[in-house]
């Protein structure tokens, strides 16, 4: 299913065995946990033949408190320095690059609107020599 995406179709044959193994292991662990929790929730006399008498599960961890405003605290960091490094490494915010991209887009639009790249109005079949002279 995931390999049906446009990106993966273009790449051809993609190695998926490791990710499928990871998904299967995660699914198996989750299913085992659900079964164990349901079994341990039964009264002790019903699960006596399935589970040893002295087996108990750890209590579930307490839920994490929700922030009042729904925001997650971010540790202190140097934003101007990080942004400066991003700007240095990124070309799409440079004025020259933006001007070049705009000029390329304008030229492409002009070619498709004004100029004819292909001559599709041929009246008769031609040989290669005739076509080159035309």
The helix fraction, in percent, is: 40-55%
Compressed to H and E, one letter per element, the order equals HHHHH
- What characteristic shape results from the CA principal axes? elongated
Q: Which residues sit in consecutive blocks of at least 5 with pLDDT less than 50?
A: none
End-to-end distance: 51 Å
- How many β-strand runs? 0
Q: Give the DSSP E fraction (strand runs of 2 or more residues).
A: under 5%
Please, how many helices? 5
Rg is 32 Å
Q: Given the helix and strand composition, which structural class is it?
A: mainly alpha
Largest β sheet strand count, sense and barrel closure: none
Q: Give the overall pLDDT as a whole number.
A: 81
Question: Can you walk through the features of this model?
Answer:
- This protein is an all-alpha fold and 134 residues long.
- The mean pLDDT is 81.
List keywords for this structure.
50% helix, 134 residues, mainly alpha, 5 helices, single chain
Write the layout of secondary structure elements.
Blueprint: H1 6-11, H2 17-41, H3 79-89, H4 95-113, H5 128-133
Give a nutshell description of this structure.
The chain is mostly helical and 134 residues long.
């Amino acid at each position: 299913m995931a390999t049906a995406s446009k990106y993966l179709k273009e790449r051809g044959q993609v190695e998926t065995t490791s990710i499928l193994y990871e998904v299967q292991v995660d699914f198996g662990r989750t299913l085992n946990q659900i079964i164990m929790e349901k079994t341990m929730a039964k009264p002790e006399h019903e699960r006596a033949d399935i589970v040893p008498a002295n087996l108990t599960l750890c209590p579930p961890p307490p839920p994490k408190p929700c922030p009042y405003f729904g925001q997650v605290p971010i540790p202190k960091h140097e934003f101007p320095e990080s942004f400066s490094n991003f700007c240095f490494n990124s070309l799409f915010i440079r004025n020259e690059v933006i001007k070049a991209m705009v000029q390329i887009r304008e030229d492409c639009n002009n070619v498709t609107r004004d100029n004819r790249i292909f001559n599709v109005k041929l009246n008769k079949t031609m040989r290669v020599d005739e076509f080159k002279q035309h």
